[in-house]
Amino acid sequence: MQIDCRNLDCPKPVINTKEALNSLEIGENLEILLNKAVSLENVLKFIKSNNLKPTLITNDGEFIVNVVKTSELTDHDASKYGCEIVKKKVVFLKDDKVGSEPIGNGLLAKFLGSIASVEPVSRPSYIICVNDAVLMTTNRAHPSYAALKELEMMGVKILSCGSCLEALGIVDRLGIGEASNAFEIINLLLNNETVCL
């Protein structure tokens, strides 16, 4: 089944998605056409809140979401998917230090360690590591490893650039968080409040 949700104001795309999924049998596929970022965000949230796994195709400002109905819906409240996207905080790290040595490594470790002491509402939802910053998630001896591990245990999602891990030959050493990709990272940076250290 295909539904065209292009040019619809939210939460209408979520409502239409819910109705379409409810009408499908288990194992059937739904294709949703969208052309607004906020609608895409909400439809993806709704699908994932129902423990379904969407796939996304982007094409010149338009989006195609595909999802196979693998179970009945559990989240029926489409009204909570309004037009406002709640922005999260993202810390974007391009290096494993702040400034030059000899204080750069220790300084970043102190910054990261301080995040655990701030109010939970002020903490970032994500810390993204690219380039040499992935050395912090792969080397237990790195000064920032313990701070990142503690933040992960507190619920902060730690993402390491998968291409960077491959380029450095350290994919198998990832000890904190998950490997990510350019598409996920750029979406997080563009759709949230980002802090670069």
From TrEMBL:
Domain UPF0033: 2-65
Pfam families: TusA (PF01206)
Superkingdom, natural source: Bacteria
SUPFAM superfamilies for this protein: DsrEFH-like, SirA-like
Family matches, as PANTHER family: SULFUR CARRIER PROTEIN YEDF-RELATED (PTHR33279)
Sequence similarity: Belongs to the sulfur carrier protein TusA family.
NCBIfam families from the UniProt entry: selenium_YedF
Name of this protein: Selenium metabolism protein
Biological classification of the source: Bacteria, Pseudomonadati, Campylobacterota, Epsilonproteobacteria, Campylobacterales
